Amino acid sequence: MTRALLVFALAAAWAGVARAEPATVATLRMATVAPEGSAWAHLLKAFGNEVESSSGGAVRVKWYFGAITGDELQTFEGIKQGHLDGIASGGVICERLAPSMRIQGLAGVFQSREEAAYVMERIWPTIQEETQRAGFEMLIVSGLGPEVIFSRTPVRSMNDLRRMKVWRWAADEVGIAVAGEMGLQVVPTDLDVAGRAYEAQRTDGFIAIPTAALAFQWSAQARYITDLRSGYLTGCVAIRNSAVDRLPPEHQRLLRSIMAKYDALFQEIGKRQDDALLGGLFQKQGLRPVPPSEAFHSEFFDSARAARERVAAKLVPRPLLDRVMRMLADYRAEHPESAKAR
Length: 342
Description:
Layout: H1 3-20, E1 26-32, H2 39-54, E2 59-64, H3 72-80, E3 86-89, H4 92-97, H5 113-122, H6 124-133, E4 136-146, E5 148-151, H7 158-163, E6 165-169, H8 173-181, E7 185-189, H9 191-199, E8 205-208, H10 210-215, H11 218-221, E9 224-226, E10 232-240, H12 241-245, H13 249-284, E11 288-289, H14 294-315, H15 318-334, H16 336-341
Parallel strand pairs: 1-2, 1-3, 6-7, 6-8, 9-11
Antiparallel strand pairs: 3-10, 4-10, 5-8, 5-9
């Protein structure tokens, strides 16, 4: 074979290989504050891998973990400017895209993971409509866990809680407003500053979900945990409509169907982690549990209810709050064990 024929044959072979490999239709650029190595990050990576393999490599998902693109508000700005396509949010951006989700920030409304899921499922059409109006698609809404108290000293009463300087995520406008109305000394910071603020004794503890305390290592800094379960946080995965629209219809359907499967996985793994962490794992790691007394529980939720009445109108439409409270009354009537847990 002459050199020219050999070159031609090799070129043809390479062309055949290139035709056999599907061209990437799109790379979806997604970001989250979830740290690399966390359970959330593992699931999000698995989702991306499944999208790529199921589409034959035509659709790829590139995740940026650990707030590498900034905090949630900065990441959201990056999405609006076209630098990113979507976000896995710990609640803050979910509430900005779908204001109805601000209901979760009112302390004491949801008092179990099941109650939060029950309500979110029923207001899902409203959430979808609000998100679409904002130019996004909400792929999933998933429960992240209960808010509990991690502290430097034991918290056994509202007086103890009001004496401490308590951290809350600076972007959580609703949670900060309600906590302040309840008489708590709130010190808001960004997520990446929370641990340093505690070490510097600018704060005395955190109100946070167990998986976040584990992922950001706050549970290794605090000494006590009070499992009050003052609220239940719901997160989401949202993506720009324009990013979805550029995919062929079959790949749009694929993306949604795979994410629906991962919605269930997030719920399942989140519950499993909560049960393990609050069921003894935190204690084995050195945190000393402070079981909330019935008096503390009643005092906290009475204070939360009064605070809601005073500030809810500024944060959540009154008709929505009334509707949600009716839903919860129905749920608790059908599930007495939920009412008993309160």
